Task: structure prediction
Amino acid sequence: MTKLSILATAACLAMAFSAPFAVAQTPPEHPKIVMPDHSMRASMLIGKKVLDEQNGELGTVVEIMVKNGAVEPKAIVAILDLNALATRHVAVPLSRLKVQDDKVMMPGVTKKMLVAMPLYDYEGDGRSH
Result:
């Protein structure tokens, strides 16, 4: 090997070993649902359990639906209908969800009330899920 190629190889190895390793970094803290400006992160709401005032499980947020214009977004909540032994999707106004200490609550709502709501129609073609 020539002196130039040995020098180039040594320089490349030195740079490679001086670069920080990504695996050594600590993971970021879990992001919060509610941001400092009081906005809610939809990505953090999806998958969260929805609880009643007694911390009983009402369902799970499966989607946030937003329309063009000044229409309030809807949270699509999957609930287990014990009478039908099936999962139902219902749409509730996003403002009905209250986040406290990263728990998603629906004060004043019971599972019976959610089961009585009409099924949410994703396609607009009469099919409900």
In short: The helical segments are 3-18, 42-45, 111-116. The two ends are 70 Å apart (CA to CA).
